[in-house]
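From the methods appendix. Each design record in this collection lists the tokenized structure first, followed by the designed amino acid sequence. Records were kept in a plain field format so they could be parsed without special tools. The example shown here is representative of the layout used throughout.

RECORD:
FOLD TOKENS (434 positions):
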């Protein structure tokens, strides 16, 4: 029997906790957060849960809640990552989080492994810090988790996470891979103002940064909201323009291009939807700047001012139901992987579509938003792999893009039980050119 600590029971953590409560091999779920209302709400809905109030900026507070657990599921803001990783090492537990981290860059710079001569050159310091943080995950925390025989898995929500597993699935159709595109369109649009269905601070931070791409075998910074590219898939009512967006996938794939992605030389994350449409003019006007400035005799940080006006993501049943009762202006979306390469000497495209319930169907099925369904439950599927020992014998640190073929198959076997499925289309060169 397995004991799980879910740290952070917001929209995604609570979704995962609900599913873990149904797993027969789980004996107890500790739902921990700094918000008593969030803890009490989720605990009241579960059979195997107990609550804990944790200050994740205090390592001892996490360790106290984590004593005796088999897995720590980290759904907290990125600045808490180091404390949660350290707590997992102290209590000797496996570790899982929903995103990569940007909080370990200073640890890397201060380590004996730091070599500034061999770092990529980016146009912005934030992307370099992000790269350093992943290096720290692999090369500092990797040996530490190996030493205790435990595994740390990062980037295991929907994107990164589910989309990375789907990209790994695409590789089985190729002998070599040249270029990967990850496309995500957020087509769940409410009738009221609700630009994001997940953490507004996380979303706005991503919108405020330059993007990153893996191009010609090198990591580069790319302009936020730049490099537009249009697509029309069957999931879409019309052609949609996707743009550059600060996201983990190209960075993760670059580390494993040869071992996991058939020698891939180019990887891009392209995004579209209401959140992008809302944020682009703010970004262009300088209203997503983190720099303090003076306005009419008052000092303000534009980013913080904008953030203060954004509604939180709905996470409670009655909140979500109110959107369903009002009716959605649009209830759609897509997640598509395009992997270009060769098979048996012929140029082909492996196009993988992720099919999943939309906003209303997610609520009807599980009392969740579509974002909670895909990210929280996409993350839960990795947790299910942990508790069912699918990672048996593995230790150290891996990203969600490093699953074996057998593990990818198991992931999507579990996903199909939630009606999250893949559809793969193989197109030859003459079809691609049309």
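DESIGN:
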């Amino acid at each position: 029997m397995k004991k799980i600590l879910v740290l952070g029971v917001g929209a995604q953590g609570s979704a995962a906790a609900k599913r873990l409560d149904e797993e027969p091999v789980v004996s107890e779920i500790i739902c921990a957060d700094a918000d008593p209302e969030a803890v009490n709400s989720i605990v009241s809905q579960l059979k195997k849960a107990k609550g804990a109030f944790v200050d994740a900026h205090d390592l001892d507070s996490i360790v106290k809640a984590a004593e005796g657990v088999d897995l720590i599921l980290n759904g907290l803001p990125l600045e808490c990552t180091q404390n949660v990783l350290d707590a997992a090492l102290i209590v000797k537990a496996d570790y899982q989080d929903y995103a990569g981290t940007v909080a370990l860059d200073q640890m890397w710079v201060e380590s004996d492994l730091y070599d500034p001569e061999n770092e990529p050159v980016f146009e912005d310091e934030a992307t370099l810090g992000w790269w350093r943080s992943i290096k720290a995950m692999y090369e500092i925390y990797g040996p530490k988790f190996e030493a205790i025989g435990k595994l740390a898995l990062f980037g295991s929500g929907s994107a990164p996470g589910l989309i990375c597993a789907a990209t790994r699935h695409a590789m089985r159709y190729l002998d070599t891979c040249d270029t990967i595109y990850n496309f995500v369109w957020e087509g769940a649009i409410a009738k009221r103002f609700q630009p994001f269905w997940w953490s507004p601070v996380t979303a706005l931070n991503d919108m405020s940064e330059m993007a990153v791409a893996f191009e010609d075998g090198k990591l580069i910074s790319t302009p936020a909201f730049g490099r537009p590219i249009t697509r029309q898939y069957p999931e879409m009512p019309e052609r949609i323009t996707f743009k550059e967006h600060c996201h983990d996938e190209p960075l993760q794939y670059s580390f494993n291009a040869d071992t996991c992605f058939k020698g891939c030389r180019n990887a891009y994350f392209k995004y579209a939807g209401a959140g992008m449409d809302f944020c682009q003019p703010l970004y262009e006007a300088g209203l997503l700047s983190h720099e303090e400035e003076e306005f009419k005799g008052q000092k303000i940080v534009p980013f913080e001012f904008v953030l203060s006006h954004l509604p939180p993501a709905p996470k409670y049943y009655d909140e979500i139901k109110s959107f369903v009762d009002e009716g959605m202006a649009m209830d759609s979306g897509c997640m598509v992987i395009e992997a270009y390469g060769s098979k048996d000497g012929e140029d082909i495209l492996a196009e993988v579509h992720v099919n999943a319930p939309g906003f209303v169907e997610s609520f009807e099925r599980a009392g969740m938003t579509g974002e909670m369904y895909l990210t929280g439950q996409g993350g839960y599927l990795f947790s299910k792999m942990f508790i069912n020992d699918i990672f048996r014998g593995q230790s150290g640190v891996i990203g969600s893009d490093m699953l074996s073929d057998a593990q990818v198959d198991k992931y999507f076997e579990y996903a199909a039980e939630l009606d999250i499925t893949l559809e793969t289309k193989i197109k030859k060169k003459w079809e691609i050119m049309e």
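APPENDIX NOTE: The first helix runs from residue 11 to 20.
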